[in-house]
Amino acid sequence: MLKKRIIPSLLLKGNGLYKTTKFSNPIYLGDAINVAKIFNAKEVDELMLFDIDSSKLNKAPNFSLIKDIASSCFMPLTYGGGIETIENAKKIFKSGIEKIALNTALFKKPRLVKELSDYFGRQSIVASLNVKRDLFGRYIVVNNSLKKCYDGRLPDLLLELTEAGAGEIFINDVDRDGTLKGYDINLAKLVCSNSGLPVSFCGGASSFEDIKEVLFEGGVSGAVAGSLFVFSGPRKAVLISYPSSDDIQKIISSDER
Fold this sequence. Notes:
This protein has about 260 residues and is an alpha/beta fold. Helices cover about 35% and strands about 25% of the residues.
């Protein structure tokens, strides 16, 4: 059985970290290295970092900042943003990042997944998908940087990515991003039932119960959250938090369900 993980997800913009709501209205959280150090001290399972400007502005990753963050942390790190070549990936892995996430490149350079998987091993390659419902309630994959939608069905894309060599699927639920309304369990189930890969799922977490629900009822291996771990109270004061060891055991223990 895959180890269940509880993962903070942070958005890089310049040298700072931000949190969005439905991919809009970014709120500044603080210096990227300082926030990463706090999560490191809290011994998080893993940390996901996504540069929200690199692909949109057609820029290469900020290798210097990535290296500084990685050198300040001892937990596994996943990075996504601006990765379009094997050389990009080499520099990022050399800096100490454990996994790279591809999003825009999935559509701009569809062969890149296979190339990276063949070169580095599929365990290092995460296919990152932004998913939302259309006017008819159907799940569609969207890309903000390219301002386009994937033409096919989500299950078909999951199969394509698996066959191409992805080692993990990361789903970001656009409709619930930053809303604190709980995960879309139906979407989690759909993705897990159509992918034989580990699935990490983000969007809407507001409590430990939400995390437990998406891990066990949803079937994902990684419960990813942003607002839950960086905000406190109705006014969303910035406060970095993470479950204690005892709380994590309660969340991931099937006996507690």
